Amino acid sequence: MKFDVSAENNYAAFIDKQTVRPVFVDPFDNKEFDVRIATMTEHEPAGITQAALAGELNEKFGRLYL
């Protein structure tokens, strides 16, 4: 799954086309980001990551998601 989030975004959501599961990204302060993976009835935390640049951020999101 490819993430395309800027560190300045206030929120992001994606749908994994293979699993049809939503992925939500919530920033705490645009430096620390919470990634959650959802099902139809609940969501589970995938982890928290920190980054300042979009490329680094999207790479870290990809690793958390896997």
Task: Describe the model.
With 66 residues, the protein is α+β, with helices and mostly antiparallel strands. The protein has one domain (12-65). It is 18% helix and 38% strand. It has 1 helix and 4 strands, in the order ββββα. The chain has one helix at 54-65; strands at 12-15, 22-27, 32-38, 43-50. Strands 1-2-3-4 form a 4-stranded antiparallel beta sheet, covered by helices on one side. Strand 3 and strand 4 (43-50) form a beta hairpin. The longest helix is centred in the last third of the chain and has 12 residues, at 54-65. The radius of gyration is 11 Å and the shape is globular. The mean pLDDT is 82.
List the helices and strands and how they pair.
Elements lengths: L11 E4 L6 E6 L4 E7 L4 E8 L3 H12 L1
Antiparallel strand pairs: 1-2, 2-3, 3-4
